[in-house]
Design goal:
36 strands, nine-stranded mixed β-sheet, alpha+beta
């Protein structure tokens, strides 16, 4: 009725003369009504199209480099490749050796190339790659990264089956598998090792299976090369490889029920009787036989949506305070020493404590619950005489108070109320939060210990820039990190704490908050050993140890150092300063060293890290040739080398087309569904449909107007 009134002036005037209209006039009346209806539908359609256009425009201009959230499911199609994983882990001493077997099954009728971006432990050392095709094993070789890419591309084009593995971050890798035949399966076997964590009398091993989508700050690089892109993000001026570290993220029911599952088996040779074996992440089946224990998650196959964490504790009174391991490799001697300093208590110091909490979109869901709980627990540790502040950050950083305030009842009440109302949304602009915390005016009290607690999942792509910011701007403060979520970026958490001369912890679920935070805040009271001096026996050459200069140790944290060129003879002396200024010294007899494997690889990985650190400290480009030489000598992967394996006989006929598929990772357990990252190319169909309908409406209106004019 409303449209008729606007289209028909006679109706607006209340005329009722329709029965007296001639046939020609009646036709003109119907024409004007149709014209009015079309014009109003076109206007309404444009009102609908405009927000869609704005959303699509924003996604095309900014979404390339940043983390934009999406919860629609219609855009995703099940992958043609089914992924299966098998972890076989052997733990001995302070190192764990893992054989990770990935199975890629092509369920389509097209030849496929699979691209899979996946995490490994943040201190993983990759040292072998094997491709298995049927009964044939093709052993990979280590090459400089550019050469390995060329080798792989040539093989792919010529129809050879091939696989390459390269490092994007110390804990993030990409595997490409070329020419998987329709209906066939290719297996890729990766071998790597990682150090075993030992803190507060408990050993821990973490096996990541998925990753939290990372936020990519910066402006999109429009001239970025298109080769080897494999993710939802485009390169930016702050994260130039963001396209290579942003795999699509999907729900478990978005892939085949047989895909993205893993079998996991750990065999641990502890060397001492164990009191318990536990996991905060999975239910475990364990079988203990003396000093050996076999560990498997309950159920035949586990979903690859969270880290597997296994912890084992020696019987009371049997906790090791020191240990030495030795290996000879290619005529060279390698030693590893572990020393735990005494748990000496010092005076209670007053603190200025800044809590920095990540409230970005990646923290939505269970992670935000854990983060709020952790921060509230931190507020409970404040004592009279302490000062504090709370800073939250997402796309912007915001401080609760203009400067640190006393830990008094009314300020603490305001802080608790503020924390309870924190919600997760927006980007992860960590640099702004660090700047705000590091440049904030200090408390108006002298002699306070300056500390910062950084609570985050670490889901960022610009880690190196943030480490540099921490190193240059932290001054006298110490930075402590608290990892949140089922798949945190442990590389960022560990390295941020190292550059911040602090310590770190990780919380896997809300039930762990109190225990984990109690240990961390106990350690934060003061380092238990400073000014550490490690003296290996001199044997005619300068020892080459990693780390070369150990940092301060906190409560429950051991000193671990590996060295090359020293025989298992003589004594190792470790000394340092305890709280209160007392000197402490201990000696270890190297002849008591236990045999071990992988020490040469662990040392080589440490030396590569040192070369990368030295370049960062000087603001220089890393010495690529030296790192490649070291990597090739010890056959361990580095930022500048990659593994590649090529089947000699070509398999795919040149007439057959090769499709390429980026395999997704699973949404981390406990994450909000808005963290899903589907291919963006399929998300603008509502805009295109609306534009088409709007065009049809305008065309109809124009046709009616032309007809009216000619009538």
């Amino acid at each position: 009725m409303l449209l008729t009134l606007f289209a028909n002036p006679a109706a607006r005037a209340g005329f009722t003369t329709s029965r007296r209209l001639t046939p020609k006039f009646d036709a003109r009346k119907r024409l004007r009504i149709a014209e009015g209806v079309s014009l109003w539908l076109a206007v309404l359609m444009m009102l609908f199209v405009h927000p869609l256009y704005a959303e699509a425009s924003e996604g095309s201009e900014q979404g390339a480099g940043q983390l934009y959230l999406m919860n629609g499911r219609s855009a995703w199609q099940q992958p043609a490749l089914i992924l299966d994983s098998d972890f076989n882990v052997q733990v001995s001493g302070m190192l764990a050796q893992t054989r990770l077997t990935r199975t890629f099954k092509n369920t389509s009728d097209q030849w496929q190339e699979g691209v899979f971006v996946f995490p490994l432990p943040d201190k993983a050392t990759v040292y072998d790659l094997v491709m298995k095709v049927g009964e044939r094993r093709v052993v990979g070789r280590l090459e400089p990264k550019a050469q390995a890419r060329k080798t792989y591309e040539n093989a792919k084009v010529k129809g050879h089956q091939a696989v390459t593995l390269e490092q994007q971050r110390p804990n993030l890798f990409t595997s490409r598998i070329a020419n998987i035949p329709p209906g066939e399966t290719v297996q890729v076997e990766v071998r790597y090792q990682q150090p075993v964590g030992y803190r507060h009398g408990e050993f821990e091993l973490r096996l990541p299976t998925t990753l939290t989508p990372r936020y990519m700050p910066g402006e999109t690089i429009t001239e970025a090369p298109k080769n080897w892109r494999s993710g939802w993000a485009m390169p930016t001026d702050q994260v130039t490889d963001s396209d290579q570290i942003s795999p699509f993220t999907v729900r478990a029911d978005d892939v085949s029920p047989q895909s993205h599952r893993a079998t996991i088996a750990l065999d641990i040779e502890s060397g001492f009787p164990l009191a318990e074996v536990t996991s905060p992440s999975h239910s475990l089946y364990t079988h203990i036989d003396g000093t050996r224990v076999s560990v498997r998650p309950e159920g035949d196959r586990v979903l690859m949506d969270k880290d597997l964490i296994v912890r084992w504790r020696p019987e009371s009174g049997r906790e090791p305070a020191a240990a030495v391991f030795q290996q000879q490799w290619q005529g060279q001697d390698y030693l590893m020493a572990m020393v735990l300093p005494p748990d000496a208590a010092g005076p209670v110091l007053r603190r200025e404590l800044q809590f920095v909490i990540d409230t970005s979109g990646s923290m939505a869901g269970e992670s935000m619950v854990q983060a709020r709980t952790a921060l509230l627990r931190g507020l409970d540790t404040l004592r009279p005489g302490d000062y504090f502040n709370v800073i939250q950050f997402n796309s912007q950083a915001h401080a609760l108070f203009a400067q640190p305030v006393p830990a008094e009842r009314h300020y603490l009440a305001r802080a608790r109320h503020y924390v309870h109302n924190l919600q997760a949304d927006g980007g992860t602009e960590m640099a702004g939060a660090l700047s705000l915390a590091m440049t904030m005016e200090k408390a108006p009290v002298e002699a306070l210990v300056q500390q910062m607690v950084f609570i985050t999942d670490g889901a960022v792509g610009n880690e190196s820039a943030l480490f540099e910011k921490i190193r240059q701007g932290l001054n006298e403060r110490r930075l402590f990190t608290v990892g949140i979520g089922s798949a945190p970026n442990m590389h960022f958490l560990r390295e941020a704490a190292r550059w911040g001369r602090g310590d770190y912890t990780a919380i896997h679920n809300s039930g762990e908050v109190n225990q984990a935070l109690k240990k961390l805040f106990s350690a934060m009271e003061a380092p238990v050993l400073t000014d550490i001096d490690v003296r290996w026996p001199s044997q005619g050459s300068e020892p080459n140890s990693v780390p070369s200069k150990p940092g301060d140790l906190f409560r429950g944290q051991p000193l671990v150092q590996t060295i090359s060129g020293v025989l298992a003879a003589g004594e190792l002396e470790v000394s340092g300063t305890l709280p209160g200024g007392r000197r402490w010294r201990t000696r270890l007899h190297l002849s008591h060293a236990a045999p071990a494997t992988g020490l040469n690889r662990h040392w080589a990985r440490g030396r590569i890290d040192q070369l990368m650190d030295a370049a960062s400290l000087k603001g220089e480009t890393p010495n690529e040739s030296s790192i490649i030489k070291l990597s090739m000598a010890h056959q361990v992967m580095s930022p500048f080398t990659s593994f590649v394996a090529v089947e000699e006989k070509p398999l795919r006929p040149t007439s057959e087309k090769l499709e390429s598929e980026q395999l997704p990772t699973l949404l981390p357990a406990g994450s909000h569904a808005d963290m899903l990252r589907y291919p963006q190319t399929a998300t603008i169909w509502p805009l295109l449909s609306a534009l088409g309908l709007a065009g049809l409406m305008f065309a109809l209106a124009a046709a009616l107007r032309n007809r009216r004019a000619s009538a």
